[in-house]
Write a structure and sequence with these properties.
The chain is an alpha+beta fold. The chain has helices spanning 54-63, 65-70, 76-87; strands spanning 9-11, 18-20, 24-29, 35-38, 46-51. This is RNase P modulator RnpM.
Length: 89
């Protein structure tokens, strides 16, 4: 019997849904207070996951969900970068 590998699930901080890690995008805050998009999902730091959905990103920006999750003001460039990442640009 081959054991099926477990798919790592993470929670989207906006929709609160548990989704496979691959269908989410991670934003990381380092100890130094840097914030950046982490497409690999492997960088060190406090991470928050968002669904790969432009509407979810816009909602996160409007409601400041990420600011609260990572306890830091998130620059607009991060949201633009997330949207570009999702749209595959």
């Amino acid at each position: 019997m081959s054991k099926q590998r477990k798919i790592p699930l993470r929670k989207c901080v906006v929709t609160q849904e548990m989704l496979p890690k691959k269908s989410l995008i991670r934003v990381v805050k380092t100890k130094e207070g840097e914030v950046f998009v982490d497409p690999t999902g492997k960088k060190n730091g406090r991470g928050a996951y968002l669904s790969k959905d432009v509407d979810v990103i816009k909602k996160a920006e409007k409601t400041k969900t990420l600011d609260r999750q990572l306890d830091i003001a998130i620059p607009d460039e991060i949201y633009q970068q997330l949207i570009m990442e999702i749209e595959g640009k």
